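User: Can you recover a sequence for this backbone? Please restate the input before giving your answer.

Assistant: Of course. Working from this structure:
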């Protein structure tokens, strides 16, 4: 039986703006995202029929079942292509779960990309992303190779030029945060402050050399969800302060959190911050930019 190994990278949000809320409860977003060298590893093993999944690393009982996004991605692709063969999915989790790093979505997209190759379907990234959008908000982003702007509910993807080389240090405080809960808290604050503002100033940046220099990245860091998550989890603010005081040129919570990333201009400064992490429950992950 044939096997295929695929990398499923983590992501960080350089920009995350909440533009509004749709009647169905989903949010319109404007995001700029980058892929990281921190990644899960997936091996797809062709089988005669059916779908099986095996996980190790950062996982829980639910990840060993049909609830896993990687399993659901295989099921969706198999149905969409009327493929008769089956697949065994061997998933090694290195990306923390419920951490704002898109691990589950990346796994799903990796399975779509991998089965597309394994079963010789020749779908392009746009078509894979269309199927991926039915699985999760970040899945379409991971169907493309490099950094990108994601709009709508995350389903409208515009690839952008390669970002400058960045040395990232990700710190996870050791607890999970529910994405639906974070958005609920944001909605309450937005209603109280009437703060939803539709903004269009970044709509035409895909070919404008958005991040030509390292300082262009540090000057643009923005996450509308950060303040509501920090309000309930002040340790996120402590991590930001640690990074800012140990050489990071900027720090930001990724996605709905709770992971915070610092961006460093050189590897030594990043590594010095890495070895001086003050709390045992803080899980630290060094990473660099990554392109599929």
């Amino acid at each position: 039986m044939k096997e295929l190994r695929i990398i499923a990278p983590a992501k960080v949000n350089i920009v995350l703006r909440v533009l509004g809320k749709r009647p169905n409860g989903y949010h319109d977003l404007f995001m700029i995202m980058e892929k990281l060298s921190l990644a899960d590893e997936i091996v797809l093993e062709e089988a005669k029929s059916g779908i099986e999944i095996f996980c190790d690393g950062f996982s829980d009982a639910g990840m060993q079942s049909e609830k896993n996004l990687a399993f659901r991605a295989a099921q969706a692709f198999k149905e969409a292509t009327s493929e008769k063969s089956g697949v065994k999915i061997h998933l090694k989790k290195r990306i923390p779960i419920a951490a704002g790093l898109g691990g589950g979505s990346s796994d799903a997209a990796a399975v779509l990309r991998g089965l597309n190759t394994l079963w010789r379907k020749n779908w392009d990234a746009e078509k894979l992303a269309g199927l991926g959008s039915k699985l999760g908000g970040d899945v379409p982003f991971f169907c493309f190779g490099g950094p990108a702007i994601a709009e709508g509910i995350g389903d409208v993807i515009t690839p952008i030029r390669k970002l400058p080389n960045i040395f990232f240090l990700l710190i996870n405080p050791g607890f999970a945060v529910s994405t639906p809960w974070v958005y609920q808290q944001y909605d309450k604050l937005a209603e109280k402050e009437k703060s939803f503002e539709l903004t269009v100033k970044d709509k035409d940046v895909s070919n404008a050399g958005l991040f030509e220099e390292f300082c262009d990245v540090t000057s643009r860091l923005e996450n509308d969800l950060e303040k509501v998550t920090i309000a309930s989890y002040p340790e996120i603010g402590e991590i930001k302060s640690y990074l800012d005081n140990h050489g990071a040129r900027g720090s930001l919570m990724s996605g709905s959190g709770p992971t915070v990333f610092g961006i460093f201009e050189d590897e030594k400064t990043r590594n010095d911050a890495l070895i001086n992490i003050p709390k045992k429950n803080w899980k630290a992950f060094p990473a660099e930019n990554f392109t599929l």
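That completes the design. The first helix runs from residue 69 to 81.
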